């Protein structure tokens, strides 16, 4: 019997690699002779760098850049096993988890450090970039990133504008003439899991601003500022991109990267292709995937749904293990064999996070026992191909 374990991270508690290892430990403790493979997954957000670097036996490069609050931080970017492609994960540089709860306010956050990381990789000779956009704390339209890469944004007095979301309305002059010329030599590949435009009711400020700490009035201010600076940038570059799907990703970083000629693709597809997920699922009997929280949004292209669809195409049975299961998840029964929450008793969020590994292991053992009880019959029906 063959089982593929391809989870996303349980954000705030376990990485995708840790989730996969815990499920594997439970599976092998209960099912004798199981052929199991762990393929840590990500959708362009937190964990994408780790998944890609590990899958390709790449490396991490330490770097000191500006964090989301423009304070120096020590972080890293990755290089794939091809030794040619740099992976920059926004969540590692300008991530929401890096901002203390009391300081969450996208008027004050910046993507400047993301540009600094790209600049560092350029200086190391890299010209291929995969940029993972999920999990950001920013809403600056990519002004910080562009400024770090050499672009100029000035106010009425001709002074450089502080590259944060709250300063966008102050910009009156934009110059891309000083942009690092090496960017024209680069292949920019963006991993993204949202299709939102830059502005409006479905724009990044309205949809994602509140979870980054914005009040209703701040959402309006941010949206107005983005619309203003986007008009200046589009006039400067001679391109209209603010309405493109994904332009609103990562607080408008998607828009800035599109201006630089980046290609935008679904993060889950990128990770799956590089990790060879489809090849590994082919011939599997069961596929176990998971995420931190499952609800009606999971069916709109989130990573577990993507994995389950791939499993179905290859005749494997998909199971979902989730940190918690919310409203609307019942629609997923059309795709998954069953849905399982690791919460076996009432607990607080903090307790669930602190005990995520043991809770996951306990539930995984129950699932493993069910798989073991049905596995031999399932394998026979599939022609004993493993």
Q: What does this protein look like?
A:
This protein is an alpha/beta fold. It has two domains: 2-39 and 276-381, Glycerate kinase, domain 1 (Rossmann fold), CATH 3.40.50; 48-268, Glycerate kinase, domain 2 (Alpha-Beta Complex). 35% of the residues lie in helices and 19% in strands. The protein is built from 13 helices and 13 strands. It has helices spanning 16-30, 48-56, 90-93, 112-123, 143-148, 204-208, 216-237, 253-259, 267-275, 277-281, 303-313, 349-354, 356-381, and strands spanning 2-5, 35-38, 59-66, 72-79, 85-89, 128-132, 152-154, 173-175, 187-192, 263-266, 286-294, 317-325, 338-341. The strands form three sheets. Strands 3-4-5-6-9-10 form a six-stranded mixed β-sheet, with helices on both faces. A five-stranded parallel β-sheet has the order 2-1-11-12-13. Helix 1 links the parallel strand 1 and strand 2 (35-38). Helix 1 (16-30) crosses helix 13 and helix 2 packs parallel to helix 9 (267-275). The longest helix is centred in the last third of the chain and has 26 residues, at 356-381. The radius of gyration is 22 Å and the shape is elongated. InterPro entries: Glyc_kinase_flavodox-like_fold, Glycerate_kinase, Glycerate_kinase_RE-like, Glycerate_kinase_sf. Belongs to the glycerate kinase type-1 family. Pfam families: Gly_kinase (PF02595).
């Amino acid at each position: 019997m063959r089982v593929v374990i391809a989870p996303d991270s349980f954000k705030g508690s376990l990485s995708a690699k840790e989730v996969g290892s815990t499920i594997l430990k439970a599976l092998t403790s209960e099912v004798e002779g199981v052929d199991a493979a762990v393929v840590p997954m990500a959708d362009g957000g937190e964990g994408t760098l780790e998944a890609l670097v590990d899958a390709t036996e790449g490396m991490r490069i330490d770097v000191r850049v500006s964090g989301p609050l423009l304070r120096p931080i020590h972080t890293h970017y990755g290089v794939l096993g091809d030794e040619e492609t740099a992976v920059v994960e926004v969540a590692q540089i300008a991530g929401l988890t890096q901002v203390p709860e009391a300081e969450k306010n996208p008027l004050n956050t910046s993507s400047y450090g993301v540009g600094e990381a790209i600049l560092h990789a350029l200086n190391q000779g890299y010209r291929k970039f995969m940029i993972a956009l999920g999990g950001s704390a920013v809403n600056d339209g990519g002004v910080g990133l562009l400024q770090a890469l050499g672009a100029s944004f000035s106010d009425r007095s001709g002074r450089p504008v502080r590259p944060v979301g709250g300063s966008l309305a102050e910009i009156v002059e934009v110059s891309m003439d000083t942009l690092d010329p090496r960017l024209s030599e680069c292949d920019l590949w963006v991993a993204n899991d949202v299709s939102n435009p830059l502005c409006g009711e479905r724009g990044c400020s309205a949809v994602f601003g509140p979870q980054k700490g914005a009040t209703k009035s701040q959402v309006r201010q941010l949206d107005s500022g983005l619309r203003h600076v986007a008009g200046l940038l589009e006039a400067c570059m001679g391109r209209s991109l603010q309405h493109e799907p994904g332009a609103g990703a990562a607080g408008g970083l998607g828009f800035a990267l599109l201006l630089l000629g980046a290609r935008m693709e679904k993060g889950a597809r990128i990770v799956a292709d590089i990790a060879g997920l489809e090849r590994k699922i082919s011939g599997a009997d069961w596929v176990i995937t998971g995420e931190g929280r499952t609800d009606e949004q999971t069916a709109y292209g989130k990573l577990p749904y993507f994995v389950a669809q791939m499993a179905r195409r290859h005749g494997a049975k998909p199971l979902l293990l989730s940190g918690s299961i919310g409203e609307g998840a019942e629609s997923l029964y059309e795709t998954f064999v069953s849905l399982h929450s690791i919460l076996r008793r009432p607990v607080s969020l903090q307790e669930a996070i602190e005990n995520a590994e043991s809770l996951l292991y306990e539930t995984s053992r129950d699932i493993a026992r069910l798989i073991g009880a049905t596995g031999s019959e399932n394998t026979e029906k599939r022609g004993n191909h493993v």
